[in-house]
Amino acid sequence: MIANKWGFRTQAEGKYLGIPLISRRPIKADFQHIIDSVRDRISSWGTRNLSLAGRVTLINSVLTSIPIFSLSHTFVPGNVMAEIEKLIRRFLWNGNLTSNAAHLVAWEQVTKPKSAGGLGIHRLEEWRSILVAKLAFKFLNNENTLWVRCFQAKYGNRESIFSTKSLYVKEEKQQYKTLCGGLAMVAPPRLWRTLGLIPTLL
């Protein structure tokens, strides 16, 4: 309606800096390019005779870093992260994506810190929680920035945005719920009480 009134040119949904510009809930297909990037990188290493330690190093330094930019800016569906971790597990135990070697240790144990008996591989779900908390921290401490002002103009002030009641409104956007969940990781307990928060990450 606004475009028709003022004669603005519109276009179909696309991407900006690799981030999908969509008005609906993100789906796996929107992030297929990330999955393909991880798969292509593993395929390029498949002919090398890498040790287990070498594969762990590549996983932590390269593979788990590929989706970080998207995780820090938008809601990435869980099935996207599950698919990426599936590729990482195959690379860890097989060295490639074609053979099917046995997975000798449970993934939950592998992703524990080395001090706890694991290999120190980073879980993408944990990365997402950290980045969401970082986003919530910026929201609390940069109220004059443009994106915070736009967010508050749409959803109200911070007291109403982060109220316990608002966390369960099904009609709200996923970005809104994600930001609300991140606050529980960065807000001090006294702010939970002041704003009516629950100290859990959604």
Automatic annotation (TrEMBL):
Protein origin, superkingdom: Eukaryota
Name of the protein in its database record: Ribonuclease H protein
Species of the source: Apostasia shenzhenica
